[in-house]
Design a protein that fits this description.
Structural class of chain A: alpha/beta
CATH topology of chain A: UDP-N-acetylmuramoyl-L-alanine:D-glutamate ligase
Radius of gyration of chain A: 17 Å
Keywords (chains A, B, C): ATP-binding, Kinase, Magnesium, Metal-binding, Nucleotide-binding, Thiamine biosynthesis, Transferase
EC number (chains A, B, C): 2.7.1.50
Strand order of the largest sheet of chain A: 2-1-3-4-5-6-7-8-9
CATH superfamily of chain A: Ribokinase
Number of strands of chain A: 9
Shape of chain A: globular
Largest sheet of chain A: 9 strands, mixed
Strand content of chain A: 15-25%
CATH architecture of chain A: 3-Layer(aba) Sandwich
CATH class of chain A: Alpha Beta
Catalytic activity (chains A, B, C): 5-(2-hydroxyethyl)-4-methylthiazole + ATP = 4-methyl-5-(2-phosphooxyethyl)-thiazole + ADP + H(+)
Oligomer: homotrimer
Enzyme class (chains A, B, C): transferase
Distance between the termini of chain A: 23 Å
Family (chains A, B, C): Belongs to the Thz kinase family.
Helix content of chain A: 40-55%
Chain lengths: 263, 263, 263
């Protein structure tokens, strides 16, 4: 993590998102603020061309419909063909049969990282959960076993975000305890975490460490923003300012990481 | 109104919006800030499944097209079937024949509440008005008779928002004089009022009182936000902070309501 | 430029945008803050009706797909038929063959103004450029000759935005050196410039001067906002506040314009 932000800013990775309408503005601003560049393009006629020029792809199913699902599949498939890293954000997994069906289709394209809240990760791992729509009714701790199962089955990195974030692969687990309680009161913070992972995937070889870096940046920027804020409205704007001015030294000083031994 | 916010926050209602692209982010943030949870889903294959898990539905025709109109109709019909409350926001009523045709279709599914500006309510009631697009060229007072006619004809609650807001049913009228002149300079404040009504419908039996509560919360939060702001940009963010920290006591202290005798 | 803002606010022009999902909220807020009114409507069944009631149209291809391209073409064609001014924002020109094909189709409807960054203007003028997606890899100075060629060929005004902005027609060039380095770190500032041009086109006869006014307002508002900001997050909100309170006197005092002799 020593020079994670410096490396990111030197690379200035292009990150393509095929994401939901609600958060497009947030995620574009977060990428610009941290030093990356967003691209949003979903037309079937160009989605593969875009994948070929970006550093990483992020697919988020929040406001999916048939046209967009086809865009997501075309993009994910092309990322796989080109060996480019891509992130799957399974928003609302488990809330409807349609979402589950689409996720089954997308996961076949071998996402480099899957990031969701506990309910979404539990649902993806076929654990029956009570859905709260797009919010999580479960704590992230409860989904660690399901996350490991997913990571092993699909040979991917799984990130479970929540009050504590977990980054998991077949053997490793990192727990990150940065962040602030107001962050879930701002729409799209989870989706922003996913594009942040995309940005770090564009600048860092190891997807596991890229994910740890991204989630730590999210948490630390959230803490710094909260210190200047009076609620979730002001948090959102200070969050971009914090991403913009965050240094690697601040990141290291404030990171609260626990690295577990391989299990 | 005594414990309106407390009740809302205990319920934490899930509110599904099928709304326009411009305001999705705002309305999601407002719901999260006040203590509710937003869901945005419009795919024909899941829109009814989502209606079945939420407390209330909001349909806003701002950026309609044929696919989305079908989503709106599917959702509104299912809300009617399940007896779930739903709000119709007739953005731009009267601006084009297409909008009027779509509104005729949607209103048949018996919205629990209709909220619009004066021009929209006049247009819905078939009063010829000069359109200003999605802004209102009329004062809310001018639409009270049209609102009563609509409320009676469709057995619904009608809310006319403007410098003064009116909540109307067959017999009752409440005039709310909270709010701030900068609020119409922030995009989507009307749309936000509609989802706020959706949130209170999820936590309060009587749709008339739920609408009064929602509009008073909007106005009081707008006033509190304006006190800290230097224009419509800062108003928007302080508005979320105000929704987040608003108490029932503040609400009661600042509410400027006039309840009229049945006419 | 003497009374540019006063004239705009008296006219309160209706500006229709057919634009990308990422920036709809920003551009609507900017129009409201400066004193104009936004309309976003793209349904094939109403897009021409909307063109007929607005002062100006803005077409931005950021998140295009086939349905939206048809909406753009219908609207642009109708603007041409009615003699209404319209602005073309060729987002990501050159990034994919599909974008180039669509731009070829739209430019045939004779945009009143074309506004893009240097890479986009170079690409539109068929100069081979290395694409950075939707960001510019070129300085605006490098695109002045290409801009003049476009302006001459299509009898239009061309605006190249960047650290310095250029407004160009067949004979004239104005260089504007207002603005702030954080502005490109806020998503949609270019798109906002395009709708601002739309607003001034609705209030000013000469499209060249309207474009100069709009770009100067953008730059000066950005400078005023930066003085109060700690990064791109706070810049965005202070930018709306600055647009809202900006006066013609401030505009004249701070404008850094260089008008070149006809070349």
């Amino acid at each position: 993590m020593e020079q994670a932000l410096e490396k990111l800013r030197q690379t200035a990775p292009l990150v393509q998102s095929i994401t939901n309408y609600v958060v497009m503005n947030n995620t574009a601003n977060a990428l610009l603020a941290v030093g990356a560049s967003p691209i949003m393009a979903h037309a079937h006629k160009e989605v593969r061309d875009m994948v070929s020029i970006v550093h990483a792809l992020v697919v988020n199913i929040g406001t999916l419909d048939d046209y967009w699902v086809e865009s997501m599949a075309l993009a994910a498939q092309h990322a796989l063909e080109l060996g480019k890293p891509w992130v799957l954000d399974p928003v609302g997994a488990g809330a409807t049969p349609y979402r589950n069906e689409v996720l089954g289709q997308l996961i076949a394209f071998k996402p480099t990282v899957i990031r969701g809240n506990a309910s979404e990760i539990l649902s993806l791992a076929n654990v029956a959960v009570a859905s709260r729509g797009v919010d999580s009714a479960n704590r992230s701790e409860e989904a660690v076993d399901a996350g490991r199962q997913l990571a092993t089955q699909f040979d991917t990195v799984v990130c479970i975000s929540g009050a504590s974030d977990f980054v998991i692969d077949r053997h490793r687990t990192v727990r990150i305890e940065n962040g602030h309680e107001w962050m879930p009161r701002v729409t799209g913070m989870g989706c922003t975490a996913s594009v942040m992972i995309g940005a770090f995937l564009g600048a860092e070889e190891d997807p596991f460490e890229a994910t740890v870096n991204a989630m730590t940046v999210m948490g630390v920027a959230g803490e710094l923003a909260a210190e200047k804020s009076t609620g979730p409205g002001s948090l959102q704007l200070h969050f971009y300012d914090a991403l913009f001015s965050l240094t690697d030294k601040q990141l290291l000083d404030r990171a609260k990481l626990t690295r577990n031994e391989p299990t």
